[in-house]
Design a protein that fits this description.
By secondary structure, the chain is an all-alpha fold. Helices cover 59% and strands 0% of the residues. The N and C termini lie far apart (60 Å). Bound molecules: adenosine-5'-diphosphate and nickel (II) ion.
Length: 216
């Protein structure tokens, strides 16, 4: 298979596997991350095939929709990529990207590093920010039947990985517990620039939200 055919087969596999997924973690999230990753990759010295496969497969089986099991995603991706007869090194690298991309409260040290992971992680983080990030966040809160905002429940800044995963706090808290922290976690300079614009938009949204909450 040439590169275009590999990407095409991967897209088909991802679309099929994610049909019916929650709206913030569906094919269109993957599509945006793939596009953004390719854009960031233009200014980075990376293996583009690994970046594209990593972006396309990064949410193939998100642990929070699979009873917390973090091994399913890398395993499914590994099985799929083996069926395409890709080299072991490429398969291993893509699996490492899937394993290490997640935020999980931002307090866990990364177990693996590569410029390709840097690019895909930035692209995934950018999709959690800005107008799209806001839309995804409220979609997720609605999916979990959470309150939009509750002034009596303040954000918790000291959650470890387990507390972060099991939190059922109002959706607005997620801005303080994750979304507003992302701009300082970017890996690449292109990603950092894009993150600043999206960060500023979220701050504007929050200002307006509280203004309206107070009846103004
Ligand atoms: P990560 O795996 O990097 O921790 P997630 O997949 O948990 O990232 O988050 C992706 C997006 O899903 C978030 O940016 C947000 O839009 C939504 N989301 C995840 N957890 C929550 C939450 N507790 N409240 C609201 N939205 C959430
Ligand atoms: Ni993602």
């Amino acid at each position: 298979m040439n590169k275009a055919e590999l990407i095409h087969s991967t897209i088909e596999y991802v679309r099929k596997t994610l049909s019916g997924a929650e709206g913030g973690h569906d094919w269109w999230h993957v599509f945006r991350v793939w596009n953004t990753a390719r854009k960031i990759a233009e200014t980075e010295d990376v293996d583009l095939l690994v970046v594209e496969l990593g972006a396309l497969l990064h949410d193939i089986a998100d642990s929070k929709f699979h009873g917390g099991d973090e091994s399913i995603g890398p395993r499914m991706a590994g099985e799929f990529l083996s069926s395409l007869n890709l080299p072991e090194g490429t398969i291993f690298h893509v699996q490492q990207i899937i394993k290490n991309i997640s935020f999980k409260g931002g307090k866990e040290a990364r177990q693996f590093s590569s410029p390709e992971l840097d690019v895909v992680q930035d692209a995934d983080r950018l999709d959690a920010m800005g107008a799209i990030g806001i839309a995804r966040t409220f979609n997720f809160g609605g999916h979990k039947n959470r309150e939009i905002y509750n002034p009596e429940i303040p954000p918790d800044f000291n959650m470890d990985k387990e507390a972060y995963k099991s939190s059922a706090a109002p959706t607005l808290n997620h801005f303080y517990e994750k979304l507003l922290l992302l701009k300082d976690l970017m890996n690449t300079s292109t990603g950092r620039k894009m993150a600043q614009t999206r960060h500023d938009f979220m701050l504007k949204f929050l200002d307006e939200f509280y203004r309206e909450w107070e009846g103004n």
